[in-house]
Design a protein that fits this description.
- The chain has 216 residues and is an alpha/beta fold.
- It has a single domain (8-215), classed as Alpha/Beta hydrolase fold, catalytic domain (Rossmann fold, 3-Layer(aba) Sandwich), CATH 3.40.50.
- The protein has helices spanning 34-37, 80-100, 115-126, 171-176, 179-183, 201-215, and strands at 8-11, 20-26, 48-52, 56-58, 62-64, 68-70, 76-78, 103-113, 133-137, 157-163, 189-193.
- The protein has a seven-stranded mixed β-sheet with strand order 1-3-2-8-9-10-11, sandwiched between helices. A two-stranded antiparallel ribbon has the order 4-5. A two-stranded antiparallel ribbon has the order 6-7.
- Helix 2 crosses helix 3.
- The longest helix has 21 residues, at 80-100.
- The protein is globular, with a radius of gyration of 16 Å.
Length: 216
């Protein structure tokens, strides 16, 4: 049996004799697998939780899913090919987790923050048959790293949140990026909070309430 392609942390499900729902956590740029995993103890016990580490080392910071750079004028560029490669490797990781951890492949959720949120949105829109729930925190949708697949998209539950004072991924840009969902009549829940680039307690509480309803 092959191992998932990323270093990861695991919280096992409380289910012992049947397949469990899976939650895969995808951290942001310069972070690591321990970041979102700190939420695990507050999440439903039936979940198998896998928090994965990005393959790219960011000097002095942590890890990433694709490189980001800035020119002398402060304009941001990023490596699209790395982003697409990470998108597809996360799909590979999901498939291997289903085999390895006795997962219900009809109940797979993804949670991502920042760069990780951008990636899980791309995964959902490109491979909608693979996932049931998307929890996208402080991210957005990048049309350059996805292939629109309308089949099954309306069966995915999207929870998307963003801080109105976010200067890393500005609120207005993130909100505008959701137009691809609107244009294709894809329903989603969107919430904003008066914070910067992060998840405040109110955000987490609201997300958890939403997730508990969609999980079962």
């Amino acid at each position: 049996m092959s191992k998932p392609p990323f270093f990861h942390l695991v919280k096992e499900s409380s289910f012992k004799d049947k397949p469990s729902p899976l939650l895969v956590m995808v951290h942001g740029y310069g972070s690591n697998e321990e970041d979102l995993f700190s939420f695990a103890r507050a999440l439903p016990g039936e979940l198998t939780i896998i928090s994965i580490r990005g393959p790219i080392s960011v000097q002095g910071m942590g890890y990433a899913w694709y490189d980001i750079s800035f020119d002398s004028f402060g304009n941001k560029t990023y490596n699209q090919s790395q982003a697409i490669e990470s998108r597809d490797k996360i799909i590979e990781c999901i498939d291997l987790c289903v085999e390895t951890y006795n997962i219900d492949n009809k109940n797979i959720s993804l949670m991502g923050f920042s760069q990780g949120a951008i990636l899980i949105n791309a995964i959902a829109i490109t491979y909608p048959k693979k996932v049931k729930n998307i929890i996208s925190l402080s991210g957005g949708i990048d049309p350059n790293i996805l292939k629109l697949s309308l089949d099954y998209l309306n069966k995915i539950n999207f929870y998307i949140s963003h801080g109105t004072q976010d200067v890393v991924l500005p609120f207005n840009e993130a909100k505008k990026s959701l137009k691809i969902l609107d244009e294709n009549k894809i329903t989603y829940t969107f919430e904003s909070f008066p914070v910067g680039h992060g998840v405040c307690p109110e955000n987490f509480k609201s997300m958890l309430s939403w997730f508990e309803k969609k999980l079962r």
